[in-house]
Q: What sequence folds into this?
């Protein structure tokens, strides 16, 4: 009961002081807003990237062609070896004959050309299609398969995959860097806002200490003030990211550029993003005000 | 039983000035004590050590069973809740009314609204300001402001009331009014009162225990004492 009464008072004091120091509070809130907008964009982007890399990963296969003279037993042995590899989730095997039939079905031209080859002189090869668990490890897996006996050629769309993975990781790093820098600036501004509140209320704090208020009682209003700044700062980013993302999703019908890049459905995704933004705002506000309290409130 | 006991207390400030030398002192519960001495005699330092604004550099200061020197910063509030403090400059919050100023002390301790109301009205009655509860400090005279400060100090019914030159800013008539209020508190509530002052007239009129300090040394400690000339 007592704790709730104290908390109620702290919250009331926090709102009062946000309004009293309106200009500086506004500066902090704007800074939090900008930070959180970028946080929201980063979160949306990284979730989407994760989503479609997962989609791609599901489709990503290593194609393994065996040498023409590979026997059935050898093919079976290679299958076992592939299966034993760490990063391999599954594989399918097609014999020359199966590949031939498949290709003939696919196109009339192939059909006509392949008609002239019989089993012995077929240019086609026994083929494994290997699926991997982690796209980052695809290169290593491909190399290991390449070293096996009777394996002729291994293909996994090398250039494209490598470039995509490295592009995503560097974009991610840059975004995290920007977010980190912005959070630092925001914390600095919040520290200054709270510092002003503390100095405006120095007399009050002195009297509180004299009449026997505990440190907790004295500090809590300032910490809550920081959290209130965080909450205010997260309103605009939440609105922007929610409505912005829904509009974006509708405009592109859920796909970006091609069917390959599928966007995450707005619901419930956008609620998660809003929650993350709110929590980040509150935590940043709390860290800022806790820093100010530790630095400027000698209790 | 003694409410306050000081044993071999020495206080040296960081700038090298020693304010109190080897002070031994005990003060009984329910007594009314003047601490007198000229400027720089160490009386303010003594008061400050009693509410742990300052820590003694040596020795033991025990207030109501708490060893003040060993009290951690975080635990100071435990001591402060046992005592009330009145200053020369009143230290009221200008934006709060008389009632709110007194209630503020209890709000900080998280008391219930009804309890606060009862205690605040009682305290304001004790200092004779019940008719001015809605006034702001700047609408009151100095004497009245000091009485509000006293009400705030006693609202939590402390065992000990510390006064650091409470009449320093007041004329003799108002000073005597304050002394009357303090004496009533001492009698009716049984609160121990320690008052630092250099007002000769008050000390001689009240005929209470007098502790005289000079240059940080205890000179005399007499029941029903007078303001000793050597303390000046």
A:
């Amino acid at each position: 009961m007592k704790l709730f009464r104290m908390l109620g008072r702290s919250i009331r004091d926090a709102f009062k002081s946000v309004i009293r120091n309106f200009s500086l509070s506004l500066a902090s809130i704007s800074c939090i807003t900008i930070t959180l907008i970028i946080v929201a964009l980063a979160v949306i982007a990284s979730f989407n990237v994760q989503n479609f890399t997962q989609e791609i990963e599901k489709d990503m296969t290593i194609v393994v062609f065996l040498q023409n003279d590979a026997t059935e037993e050898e093919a079976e042995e290679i299958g076992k070896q592939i299966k034993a590899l760490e990063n391999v989730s599954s594989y399918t095997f097609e014999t020359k004959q199966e590949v031939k039939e498949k290709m003939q079905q696919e196109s009339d031209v192939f059909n006509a050309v392949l008609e002239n080859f019989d089993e012995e002189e077929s240019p086609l090869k026994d083929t494994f299609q290997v699926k991997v668990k982690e796209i980052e490890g695809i290169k290593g897996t491909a190399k290991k398969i390449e070293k096996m006996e009777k394996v002729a050629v291994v293909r996994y769309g090398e250039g494209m995959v490598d470039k995509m993975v490295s592009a995503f990781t560097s974009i991610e790093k840059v975004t995290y860097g920007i977010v980190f820098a912005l959070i630092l600036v925001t914390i600095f501004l919040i520290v200054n806002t709270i510092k002003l509140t503390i100095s405006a209320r120095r007399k009050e704090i002195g009297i509180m200490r004299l009449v026997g208020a505990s440190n907790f009682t004295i500090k809590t209003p300032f910490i809550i003030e920081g959290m209130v700044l965080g909450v205010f700062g997260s309103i605009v980013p939440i609105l922007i990211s929610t409505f912005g993302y829904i509009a974006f999703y509708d405009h592109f019908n859920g796909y970006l550029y091609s069917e390959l890049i599928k966007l995450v459905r707005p619901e419930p995704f956008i609620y998660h993003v809003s929650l993350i933004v709110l929590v980040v705002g509150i935590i940043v506000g709390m860290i800022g005000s806790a820093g100010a309290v530790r630095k400027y409130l000698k209790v | 039983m003694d409410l306050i006991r000081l044993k071999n207390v020495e206080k040296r400030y960081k700038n090298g000035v020693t304010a109190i030398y080897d002070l031994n002192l005990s003060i009984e519960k329910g007594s009314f004590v003047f601490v007198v001495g000229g400027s720089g005699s160490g009386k303010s330092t003594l008061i400050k050590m009693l509410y742990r604004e300052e820590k003694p550099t040596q020795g033991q200061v025990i207030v109501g069973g708490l060893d003040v020197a060993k009290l951690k910063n975080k635990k100071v509030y435990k001591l402060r809740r046992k005592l009330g403090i009145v200053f020369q400059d009143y230290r009221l919050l200008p934006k709060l009314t008389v009632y709110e100023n007194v209630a503020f002390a209890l709000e900080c301790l998280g008391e219930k609204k009804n309890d606060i109301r009862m205690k605040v009205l009682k305290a304001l009655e004790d200092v004779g300001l019940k008719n001015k509860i809605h006034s702001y400090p700047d609408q009151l005279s100095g004497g009245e402001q000091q009485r509000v400060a006293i009400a705030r100090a006693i609202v939590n019914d402390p065992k000990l009331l510390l006064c650091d030159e409470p009449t320093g800013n007041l004329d003799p008539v108002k000073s005597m009014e304050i002394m009357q209020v303090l004496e009533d508190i001492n009698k009716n509530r049984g609160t121990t009162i320690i008052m630092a002052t250099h007002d000769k007239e008050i000390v001689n009129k009240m005929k209470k225990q007098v502790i005289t300090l000079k240059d940080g040394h205890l000179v005399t400690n007499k029941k029903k004492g007078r303001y000793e000339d050597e303390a000046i």
User: Anything to note?
Assistant: Chain B has two domains: 2-82+159-231, 92-157. Chain B is about 30% helix and 25% strand.
